């Protein structure tokens, strides 16, 4: 009991000394802070905050903004003279901004840079993230990402590889889609912008408590030119099967097929080395008119999957609509001539039906008139 009381008393003296020294000025270089696995973590998960001070640091203190007491103290450990602060299961009370300070015989250090700890999964309404153009962007180009939500979050934020990427944006209610929206514009994209993006929602009064994440959106940056994508017949009928061939004489681990103007994720496919070149066949079954458009392919290597080659030469794919009103399956479309014959037959049947109906009505009217005349004559004879 005495030991515990003495330890607590000593801690209070150190923290008081720390506060006084901090007010006067830090005499040592500021330590560095790092969060593992990152500063954006899921509620309930395990995480560690590291504070690395000077080599002669004796103790490091972790302070959370708004708290009157230190969040924790640790003795730095070798190698690297790092102090380890473990959180077995993060909760809402852990969200906030942290700094650390280290003490040595020379005095207290300057405060570290602020580390913001954010908890996700607090709110269950998931936003949706998409690209207003294609998620495949040419290096130096621009891209705009759209985050929307049915929930009226006051802020939407974009992350890349689970780290905050851009400043949060105020949401706007869009009446046409009946959702709240925020747009994130990235100008002059570089290879640093490639990767996996997500967006989250939160409220102003709890900026470190975020919603569950959106589905991931992968952004690819294109680079060198590929040989091309080929399709012998680029005009097909609805219901046909189509195969687009992407090929390159340079080494390519994965090919990606992208449709111009499509905001959805492009299709990746592992390459095969055949006939002295790398190839991938993208097959589409029972195509519809929605498939029509301009296609390009890109290549990437496993060492940098989000860094792509330049686009191949484009291929225009046109899907002609179904012919006539035949009940045949899509794999057996009717010819144009047969369709026209069937259309004329239906039109003739409709015309004949109308003519028969008109003749019937006229016959009834004539019969009624004749009957009325006969009845009038009989009445006159009487």
UniProtKB/TrEMBL annotation:
<dbReference type="InterPro" id="IPR036179">
    <property type="entry name" value="Ig-like_dom_sf"/>
</dbReference>
<keyword id="KW-0677">Repeat</keyword>
<dbReference type="GO" id="GO:0019221">
    <property type="term" value="P:cytokine-mediated signaling pathway"/>
</dbReference>
<feature type="transmembrane region" description="Helical">
    <location>
        <begin position="349"/>
        <end position="370"/>
    </location>
</feature>
<dbReference type="InterPro" id="IPR003599">
    <property type="entry name" value="Ig_sub"/>
</dbReference>
<keyword id="KW-0732">Signal</keyword>
<keyword id="KW-0393">Immunoglobulin domain</keyword>
<keyword id="KW-1003">Cell membrane</keyword>
<keyword id="KW-1133">Transmembrane helix</keyword>
<keyword id="KW-0472">Membrane</keyword>
<dbReference type="InterPro" id="IPR050412">
    <property type="entry name" value="Ig-like_Receptors_ImmuneReg"/>
</dbReference>
<dbReference type="GO" id="GO:0002764">
    <property type="term" value="P:immune response-regulating signaling pathway"/>
</dbReference>
<dbReference type="InterPro" id="IPR007110">
    <property type="entry name" value="Ig-like_dom"/>
</dbReference>
<dbReference type="InterPro" id="IPR003598">
    <property type="entry name" value="Ig_sub2"/>
</dbReference>
<keyword id="KW-1015">Disulfide bond</keyword>
<keyword id="KW-0325">Glycoprotein</keyword>
<protein>
    <recommendedName>
        <fullName>Ig-like domain-containing protein</fullName>
    </recommendedName>
</protein>
<keyword id="KW-0812">Transmembrane</keyword>
<dbReference type="Pfam" id="PF00047">
    <property type="entry name" value="ig"/>
</dbReference>
<dbReference type="InterPro" id="IPR013151">
    <property type="entry name" value="Immunoglobulin_dom"/>
</dbReference>
<dbReference type="GO" id="GO:0032396">
    <property type="term" value="F:inhibitory MHC class I receptor activity"/>
</dbReference>
<dbReference type="Pfam" id="PF13895">
    <property type="entry name" value="Ig_2"/>
</dbReference>
<feature type="domain" description="Ig-like">
    <location>
        <begin position="207"/>
        <end position="309"/>
    </location>
</feature>
<feature type="domain" description="Ig-like">
    <location>
        <begin position="31"/>
        <end position="116"/>
    </location>
</feature>
<dbReference type="InterPro" id="IPR013783">
    <property type="entry name" value="Ig-like_fold"/>
</dbReference>
<dbReference type="GO" id="GO:0005886">
    <property type="term" value="C:plasma membrane"/>
</dbReference>
